[in-house]
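Weekly sync, protein design subgroup
Attendees: M.S., D.O., the rotation student, P.L. (late)

Item 1: inverse folding check
M.S. brought a backbone from last month's batch and wanted to see whether the design step gives back something sensible before we order anything. D.O. pointed out we never logged the input encoding, so this time it goes straight into the notes. Structure tokens as presented (333 positions):
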């Protein structure tokens, strides 16, 4: 059993992509920051959501070097709240550098570099902030063309993280997630697997990585599902604002509304419950940026979806190409 699945706590974790920086691809995110989006404002909001998450049983937290000041906010919260290192699991990611300088409308928000040089720069920064709390460190958004696949010194450095009590892994993005994960499962160094954890997009609109995620689960990897509400598309906003980029199609809305009414649940909770029902999911991330969103997300833990429900929800899925094309059009806001 993995460390993650053995934690006696909620199977929903908190992802901090929308809490560590003022701009994020998330429908209506600007409306979630009523106090402003200065660094002090966002630190207060991050603490408020972190406090609510911990009180709600959340014991797993996900962040990244590229989430603005997300690692810093999380580290400050862990220290100020005197959270014991063995009582929570923190995962972070390396490979992207945040370059937006706290501007929502920046021309570029992140710069990607999967190199040994960048790992050697970013790992000490993460370790200095998160220290003993850190249990998983992921190469951020690995794709088929990543130089990581052929960089043996980098692979060796990643594998050595295990000696520090940190599981090396990778996060996935894009229409070829399954293919990348299959490649990662085959990557060994000195007869041992390089990776032991994966974080992938899986939701009712984009479930295509499912078979590869099941293979990772069966290989003993930690499997974390992200973007369970599809960047806000599987929420009330995505259902009700038909003019918004990424809004659900009428057929998708009808199906989702019917299930919501049947279970007396909000669409975000239903979407996360479907993710929790997957046999490969150790942990499902909430990307909540407000305590209200978080409270709604956590109600997913009380929903029991039948096989018939899950089969009906399969009608929502899009082709990977369609899903990722739509996601690429969502604005930083």
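Designed sequence read out in the meeting:
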């Amino acid at each position: 059993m993995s460390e993650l699945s053995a934690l006696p706590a909620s199977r929903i974790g908190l992802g901090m992509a929308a809490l560590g920086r003022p701009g994020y691809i998330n429908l209506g995110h600007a409306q979630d920051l009523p106090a402003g989006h200065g660094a002090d404002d966002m630190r207060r909001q991050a603490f408020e959501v972190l406090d609510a998450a911990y009180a709600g049983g959340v014991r797993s937290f996900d962040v990244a070097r590229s989430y603005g000041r997300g690692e810093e906010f999380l580290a400050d919260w862990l220290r100020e709240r005197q959270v014991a290192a063995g009582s929570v699991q923190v995962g972070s990611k390396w490979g992207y550098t945040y370059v937006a300088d706290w501007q929502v409308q920046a021309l570029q928000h992140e710069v990607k570099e999967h190199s040994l040089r960048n790992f050697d720069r970013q790992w000490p920064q993460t370790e200095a902030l998160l220290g003993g709390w850190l249990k998983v460190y992921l190469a951020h958004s690995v794709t088929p063309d990543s130089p990581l696949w052929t960089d043996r010194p980098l692979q060796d450095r990643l594998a050595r993280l295990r000696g520090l009590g940190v599981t090396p892994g990778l996060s996935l993005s894009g229409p070829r997630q399954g293919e990348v994960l299959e490649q990662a499962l085959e990557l060994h160094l000195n007869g041992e697997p390089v990776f032991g954890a994966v974080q992938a997009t899986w939701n009712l609109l984009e479930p295509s990585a499912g078979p590869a995620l099941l293979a990772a689960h069966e290989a003993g990897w930690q499997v974390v599902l992200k973007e369970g509400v599809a960047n806000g598309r599987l929420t009330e906003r995505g259902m009700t604002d038909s003019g918004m980029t990424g809004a659900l199609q009428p057929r998708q809305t009808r199906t989702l509304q019917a299930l919501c009414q049947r279970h007396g649940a909000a669409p975000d909770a239903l979407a996360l419950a479907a993710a929790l029902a997957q046999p490969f999911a150790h942990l499902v991330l909430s990307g909540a940026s407000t305590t209200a969103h978080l409270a709604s997300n956590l109600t997913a833990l009380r929903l029991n979806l039948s096989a018939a429900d899950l089969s009906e929800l399969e009608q929502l899925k899009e082709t990977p190409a369609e899903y990722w094309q739509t996601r690429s059009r969502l604005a930083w806001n």
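Discussion: Residues 3-329 form a domain with the TIM Barrel fold (CATH 3.20.20.100). The CA atoms of residues 65 and 126 lie 7 Å apart.
Action: P.L. to compare against the previous round before Friday.
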